[in-house]
Structures are given as structure tokens and as C-alpha cells.
Amino acid sequence: MFRITPHPIDLAAVRRQLLDTGSGAYVQFEGWVRDYNEGQQVLRLEYEVYEPLAIKEGQRILAEATQRFGLRKAAAIHRSGMLELTDVAVIVSVASPHRSEAFDGCRYIIDQLKSRLPIWKKEHYANGTAEWVNCQHCAEAGHPHQA
Amino acid sequence: MKIEIHYFAAFREATGIDSEPVDTQAETTAALFAECAERYPALRNYSASLVAVNDEMADWGYALANGDKVLFFPPVAGG
User: Fold this and answer.
1) Taking each helix axis from N to C terminus, what angle separates A51-69 and A99-116, rounded to the nearest 10 degrees?
2) What is the pTM (predicted TM-score) of this model?
3) Which of A34, A83, A107, A145 is the best residue to mutate to test the B interface, defined by the most B CB atoms within 10 Å of its own CB?
4) B30 CB contacts (<8 Å, ≥6 apart)?
5) Which of the residues A71, A119, A135, B6 could staple to B78 if both were Cys, CB 3.0 to 4.6 A apart?
6) CA dihedral for B6, B10, B16, B22, sign (positive or negative)
7) What is the dihedral of CA A9, A75, A94, A69, to 10 degrees?
8) What CA–CA distance (Å, rounded) separates B59 from B29?
9) Above pLDDT 90, what percent of chain A?
10) Taking CB atoms and an 8 Å limit, are A132 and B9 in contact across chains?
């Protein structure tokens, strides 16, 4: 199950949905809004999401991880909109028979979510400015757009 | 052929628009992006951009067809 939501994520509800008599391990990763990045003091974050494709691609990533690591269940939820410090921006939860594949599967899912989903993060700073994350680097590097 | 282009996040701010219809001879997504970057030079400043066509991820060699909806994504940053 992959979802995008503008509302706070109910962490306990996700765990309840994954409870499973065939699983001996459950791993839940939470991504939090941190108050600094690259020397800047961050006040809040804003996520822009292109939902039709983010949901499709998110479900694809969960299916890949389920098959590759032999997970019993997997779920992820990503926030959209404006978030404050310590808010949970993303959650990944997996259940599997043993802990090793639960850790590996969870790691795979969060890494893939970060690099493949059409989601953009704008940081709002204490000095009153705001920047799309990563883009300043790209501008400085001056690389062409082709991958 | 007629193509509908959509811009997101930093690309929307760089172009000043969400989307636009274009009539183009560009045969691939890369060629179409290059055309757009001529009109909006700020688009050249990004590496690792992604492209989708008709709500499916695509690559920069994708062969465009009349009526395609092309989405240009600046570098993504989920999580």
C-alpha cells in the first residue's frame, strides 16, 4: 500500500495494518523534518507531489521490494504540502519472517522512493529565503539535463 | 505534431508556467527539452532531471507521438 497524504501520518494505524501471524520481524522507518541542511537553518519544508505518477511508481517500488526480499507485507506513506520541524515526512513499514530481509527491504524502499518519485522538497530558511533542494547544486555544476 | 508540456517545482518557477501546448518537430523527449531550454534558458541549469510521457516514466530517447502529454521533472527529492 502506497499513499500520499496532506495530513499527519497515523503511525500506529500503519503498524496495525501490517500485523501478521506469519511475520517475525517488523521494521518501520520514519523520515523527520530536521532544522538544518547544508549550513542553513531550516524552519519548515514544503513538498510538491505529482500524485498520479508518484502513486503508480510508489506501488511499483513496494512490489519490487516484496518480491526481491521476500517480504510478507510492505507499506509507505509520503506527506505533501507544508510540514513543520519534527513532523513525519515519510514512513516505510515492512513485515517479514526474519529481521534481515525486513531491514534490507525497508532500506531498499526508502532509497528508491527518494530517487524515483516525482516529489520535490522546498526548504524555507530562517533568513527568509526558500530553495528547492538539490537544485542549487545542479545550477552550480552546470550539467546538461540528460541523465 | 502537437504536444502538451507540463513543468513542475523548480521548472515551473524557471518557466513561469504550469503547462503549455506546443507544435514541434522534435522527435524525442531530449530534443523537445532542448527546444524548451532555448525558450527558457534557466532550464539548462539542472542535471539528473526526469521525464514522463502520458503519466508513465520515460527516458530521454522516447519517440514522441502527436497528442503526447510530456512531463518535465527537475531533480526529485522525496523523503
Assistant:
1) 150
2) 0.90
3) A145
4) A146, B60, B61
5) A119
6) negative
7) -150
8) 7
9) 88
10) yes
